[in-house]
Amino acid sequence: MAQSRRPTPIPDRAARTYARFQRCSSLDADRRAARLCLIRQGYYPLDPRVRREVEALELAGHEVDVICLRRPGEARHERQGSVTAHRLSITTRRGGRLNYVYQYAAFFAVATLVAAVLHVRRRFDAVQVNSMPDSLVFAAVVPRLMGARVLLDLHECMPEFYAVKFGAGMNHPAVRLVAWLEQAAIRFADRVITCTEQMRQAFVSRGAPPEKIDVVLNSANEDEFDLARLPPSRKVPGEFRLICHGTVERIFGIDVIVRAIALLSDQIPKLHLDVYGEGSALPEIRSLAADLGVSDRVYFSGRFVPLDDLVQAISNADAGIVALRRDIFRDLTHSNKMFDYITMRKPAIVSRTRSVEAYFDESCFQMFDPGDEHDLARAIRELHGDPALRDRLASRAADVNEPYRWPYQRQRYQEIVGALIAAPMNAPAGVTREIGSA
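and the corresponding structure tokens:
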């Protein structure tokens, strides 16, 4: 294993948020309940960040209307407690640029209308819009004109995403247009949150005011990943089981994991991989497993499974894998699944990216070079052969993750929303920001 290094100062700054949380364990008494709308071109409650945010808002006493996409079999309108989901039947297909533009435009048009109608009926105090695309924030135009505050949650850095997905440089005219739209969206919003300090720095480097943007990490909801409510994990003697979950796309490097499994088939006879999730790359990766002769070692769920089933599967595994390919986009982001494994005290094998190494070092994860199946095979082999290493990694990751845990991130998110709805329309909507609130 490479020599451990110290993370950047971000974790030290994050510790200040932890200390602040310890000093103040609940929202200020003057933070009032409000009516909020959340717009996301995704699936609720399937989207984990949206699900966590909605639950945090509900916990703070707010009423929430969610405007989102509809999956087959889901109700168009569904109310649970103080949360109402309004699901839009917009056909989604992965494809070329024009197809993406059409889908974005269709959802934008319908979401804008629905948000306007709901605001006339409900009079929202604030509307939160979760990217992508960044321009979706303008779907809140009618509520904003009628007095609602606007919070923009930037899940992705769209210019980098577009440049990587379509093989364009950052100076390509289309990428520059996307960057302009990003900055226009930030200017339109009263407040902005994003997922890592690296993403925040990217927005600021393109002209966004730094005091307007806060960081709320994609930490795992510990109530969902609670081992205490599960039956004991099921282990087969001598077996070494790995797990990877989430959307099955090329950028997540699942093909690299399958190739590493094939390289180790003779060295670790009872090595197995569980892949939970769905996505456009699933047929290709199934075929790859068959071509490499490891179909009997790789299990594909072929779909997103109920959360309890996923948590049980993680519990049954010996380690989790996050195999993101490294590029200018992934150097800014974190993977949700990384925090899931930390929360469940599972050692994680993680590809090196700038954003991961800024928050965690090699004492926390078994790291490997992104896209390199040989280095991944080395990492798996070392972890398989050293149970004490697995215990050390899981324990150290949990320690470093302490200030990043969801209870503290949730507190920060609730504070941001509370300050937003409490501020007069002509006053700044911010709260005192600590960069370590990531």
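(Above: one complete record from the training split.) The CA atoms of residues 13 and 435 lie 6 Å apart.
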